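Hello K.,

You asked for the raw outputs rather than the summary table, so here they are, unedited. I folded two proteins back to back in the same session to keep the settings identical. This is the first:
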Amino acid sequence: MESNADNRNYLEIMFEELDDMFGNGKRIAIYKTIVEKVEKPLIEKALARTFGNQLKAAKILGINRNTLRAKVSKYGISPKKWKI
């Protein structure tokens, strides 16, 4: 299980990458990039806590079950990975 220190390190790395994105002068979709970097691990964490139960994971995340399924498909996540 990840510790709070691991989560802080991950966030620090993400913010450093964000600073680089702002500073490099390239036109990129920063919002989309950041959301994708956060969303996939967040969905995986919710699925792990619910042993792959998408309905329960959707409730934890505060999103509709169909929205979760679309995101699971988008990111190529297999909820079966956490089934017991």
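The second followed immediately with the same parameters:
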Amino acid sequence: MTRALINVPKQARAGEIIEIKAMIAHVMETGYRRDAGGSAIERNIINRFTCFYDGAEIFAAELFPAISANPFIAFSTIATKSGAIAFAWTDDKGNTETTTAEIKVV
């Protein structure tokens, strides 16, 4: 995995519904394709995405081979307090990519 793009509002009012968008660069190899020699290409997809706000899991998703390369996920939550929103993507090989974004709640 390489690069994650995160869109979280820099500031929100307490109790405001905010939209969070996350995308990661990943080939999402399904395991159904074959290489030039006819051998199966090993499956390697992001199979789990989680998001934590103030240490609590606020969103999680299991992903399957039908998802596109560079998966994009958008969801909403309620702004409760200032701090970090943490993101984690885990693929079939056990690699986990993490990143955080800060939000200020006024």
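The domain at 4-32+40-105 is CATH 2.60.40.10 (Immunoglobulin-like).

Happy to rerun anything if the numbers look odd on your end.

Regards,
P.
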